[in-house]
Description:
9 helices; binds NADP nicotinamide-adenine-dinucleotide phosphate; 19% strand; 11 strands; 248 residues
Amino acid sequence: MTTILVTGATGTLGRQVSERLRTAGADVRGLSRRSPSYAVDLRDGKGLDAAVEGADAIVHCASTPRGGDDRAAGFLIDAAKRAGTPHLLYISIVGVDRLPLGYYTVKRRVERMIEDSGLGSTILRTTQFHDLVLRILSGAAKLPVLPVPSGVRVQPVDSGEVADRLAALALGEPAGRVPDLGGPEVRAFTDLAGAFLRAGGRKRRVVPVRLAGQAYAGYRRGDHLAPGHAVGTVTFEEFLDRRHRHPA
Ligand SMILES: NC(=O)c1ccc[n+]([C@@H]2O[C@H](COP(=O)([O-])OP(=O)(O)OC[C@H]3O[C@@H](n4cnc5c(N)ncnc54)[C@H](OP(=O)(O)O)[C@@H]3O)[C@@H](O)[C@H]2O)c1
């Protein structure tokens, strides 16, 4: 039986990747700080050897924008080398090499560490998940008006479709950097805000706000988009509709 370690297994993506791999018959180990089975803080790496031992593949979904992902990746790579060099898969973001955002810079560094590790590896970059757009809009909707970044388009993708792709890759051979996975539509943020309000039957005025800084200039340029890889099929409206019928 194939043994696969999923880091970040309690997160939005890791949970779904784990489900798909279990359905495919793999023996799945779920790791995170709060995991009931493999409770490991990747930033200190304690307990990592036991989690990696005997694994055929590692799907690395654990991440935090608070910093330390590169340190965590270092511990994971070292543990993988000690454990017989399993296939290491990494989920990254379209534009990590273009957008000057601290979180993206760290993710690009982790990509390089994995590419240079000597391990068989696979790296998939995707656009933003629908879940993230929903979280941003839900937070903003707590105000009497709905502020959204002006001039920014998004190409959100269904995290379930990302999980499908990542699980399939984990059951295959190391493939290096694979084609990006983007959502089906490139949409203005203001337009997605309208869809969010309609789906929830809410009334708010959508207020475009121009944000300063290099990172937002990058978002306005569309450095985070992959229009040539619009292979996801689930639209934001379909995602919202499903979320209404089956709340997470
Ligand atoms: N969200 C998006 O739009 C998007 C788009 C493209 C790519 N991605 C990438 O996809 C990956 C997963 O994203 P997500 O949205 O599923 O994230 P998420 O829901 O925030 O989940 C993050 C996971 O990482 C674990 N984690 C965080 N810090 C950890 C640490 N120090 N040690 C061990 N586990 C740790 C968390 O569990 P505990 O809290 O229990 O530790 C959780 O299981 C990330 O690499 C992200 O960059 C996300």
